[in-house]
């Protein structure tokens, strides 16, 4: 699979066409998706028509977009005017939005070709989707952006869009062995995206190649006056960040969190090896009680808001919900306004703390997930707790697929950056990847001698 950045250049140079790339993607999907189940809706005819239109633009000598002709997948909670958006639920079967989500309009304006909708857990919440992990079909791909992560890992598309309210980009990216990037809260418009939590919902990108998360992130980052979280300020230039050299070696902090007892042995060993490779650039701190209450605050905010945002579903389609989801939504409806406001205040305090924290550090380095993906038969998408605090605070997060478990399943390493310093985070990620590659090369050379 070629990167999206390379695809665009190949189309510009006349080495391939969008129709050829889209046809190849559709063929790969046809070969493998019966078992993988990454896609719930494919618009084959529409995608080929889009691709043909992109090729005609090139032939006519007109302007080409930065994603010109590139096939892309969208999580099935993102509205599209030309195909259904069912949010993974039978309660919304056949739902046809009238308008594209703002981010879809941005993608189309940049020349991207939308192939279809990728599988999501129902309402981007708890119950697993039917999707399997491309590395081993016995494992889960994670959730809730299950199909987007799996489609990219399987080589169906170079990039796909997902969302994260707790850990739904970083965790499946870790489990599926792809890059996952959740920009700072407010960078990307959520208008036309299923609202589960107005406070916590954030959009992210999956890619097989590092530069592609930045390429797509730049395209869909835009101020949206309709989205209350969207900020009216210049956006960091993400692709510049990926291709830049840091002026000095970055500084990292490793917080030993209270929930790190959930780390698998191979994940902890892998993380320690990464920290050793980064040498004196990492300061290790015991988080102790400094983050006490933040995980619970995230739960309170998410459950309070999703119960109210899905009130119509609870009232009219409760029989379509699993017992687990029905119970959690009922619990969310009982959370008091006072408890919710207290959780919001704790969140605001944490955001204030991190506002100056990154004056001293370029990034927090932390696991992306407890370890390898859970078995599909376990009926779980995995524990999101390794993303909880960072998502709560709206910080930019990056999964790098650099470790493997004893069972040859991917394990990700997560970098967390300062608010609206997404370009700095991606620049730091480039440095980490280069440093780890050099350390691996040195180790291989030592083994020879």
Would you mind describing this structure in some detail?
The mean pLDDT is 97. The longest helix is centred in the last third of the chain and has 27 residues, at 422-448. Strand 7, helix 9 and strand 8 (282-286) form a beta-alpha-beta unit. Helices cover 42% and strands 14% of the residues. The chain has helices at 4-12, 18-36, 44-60, 102-109, 146-153, 170-176, 210-220, 238-243, 265-278, 294-309, 311-316, 323-334, 337-357, 385-392, 422-448, and strands at residues 39-42, 71-75, 113-118, 159-164, 179-182, 202-207, 252-256, 282-286, 363-367, 397-404, 410-416. With 449 residues, it is an alpha/beta fold. It has 15 helices and eleven strands. It folds into two domains: 4-243, Amidase signature (AS) enzymes; 252-290 and 341-448, no CATH class. Helix 10 (294-309) crosses helix 12 (323-334).
Order of helices and strands: HHEHEHEHEHEEHHEHEHHHHEHEEH
The helix fraction, in percent, is 40-55%
Mean pLDDT: 97
As a percent range, the share of strand residues is 5-15%
Shape: globular
Count of beta strands? 11
Class based on secondary structure composition and strand pairing:
alpha/beta
How widely separated are the two ends?
35 Å
CATH topology of the largest domain: Amidase signature (AS) enzymes
H/I helix tally: 15
Low-confidence stretches: none
What's the level 1 CATH class of the largest domain? Alpha Beta
CATH architectural group of the largest domain: Alpha-Beta Complex
How are the strands ordered across the major sheet?
A: 1-3-2-4-6-5-10-11-9-7-8
